[in-house]
Amino acid sequence: YFQFELGIQSTNNKTLKEINRTSNWEKIKENVARLLELKTIHLHSDLIVGLPYEDLSSLKQSFNDIYSLGAEHFQMGFLKVLPGTEMEEKSNNYGVAYSSQEPYIVLKNSWLSFEQISMLHKIEHLINVFLNPERFNITIKEAINCFGNPFDFYYNFYLFLDQNVYNFNTKDWEKNGKMLLDFIESKFPDKKKIIEDALAWDWCSTSFVTSYPNFIFNEESIILKKNIFNGLFPIENNKMIINEEKIDLPDLKKALYFIVRTDYFKEKYLLGNKVVLFIPKQDKTKNILFLKELL
Asked: Would you give the distance in Å from CA 271 to the centre of its chain?
């Protein structure tokens, strides 16, 4: 029923003082953690690019601070210098250049160049493609772990896509997932299998199709499906009994069969299990069953 907008904007105290805002960062983190624990409120957190005294180093810190709150939606906005506001009156003091027509968005200032702000727009796009739709949740977490902090991940991902002429604008999950896998493989080849696990999990969690994209296809899933329908579990009245749960056979045929590739992923996310069945329901939810090895 509720969506809370956390208009934090920055965690730079000098910046906040200049725009007449006060903030107790430790209190914010505590309160957000409490709200997230409730799991009844959808949280949006906001960062604003182009504020006074926020250079790229400071912005990186604000980005990482606000991102790490863990809100469901991370909004990266850009300063709008609206006519008649205090920001417009002080724009010359701040070296601000902004568009002459709506939305009067900042183009550069004394702390961020035009090129840096253009780059930050690309990072905003990556966030809106890979983070906010919540279709790469585990993959993004593991990719960020490779780099140590969120900003460095997104910044390096942007550089990789820009230098290799990838299509920034596609919303196709398979194409975006392949771009992300190519990127991690180019930087951390030893992490490729973990990212493949994460991508496969995210695909199984969010898609309602019966097959994998080719780039993360696992032949073992076909073997597993054959084994399951080859007498491993009892059948009663066209239902298979798995973990004391009765599953309609047609639903099992539509299920995605996840086979973990790495011990790391198995221990961190699957409680030591190797096999998970994602069984679609008619109400567009999924029944998830954790199983031991069945191959």
From this structure: 22
**What average pLDDT does range 266-293 have in this prediction?**
87
CA–CA separation, 102 vs 228, rounded Å? 59
Residue 6 CA: distances (Å) to CA of 3, 43, 82, 99: 10, 7, 21, 26
Q: Decide: 153 and 143 in contact? Cβ < 8 Å.
A: yes
pLDDT digits (tens, 9 = 90+) for 240-277: 998 888 999 988 888 999 999 999 999 999 999 999 99
d(CA 163, CA 46): 29
Q: Is pTM beyond 0.85 here?
A: yes
From 70, 76, 2, 1, select the one nearest 36 (Cα to Cα). Answer: 70
Q: What is the pLDDT of residue 295?
A: 59
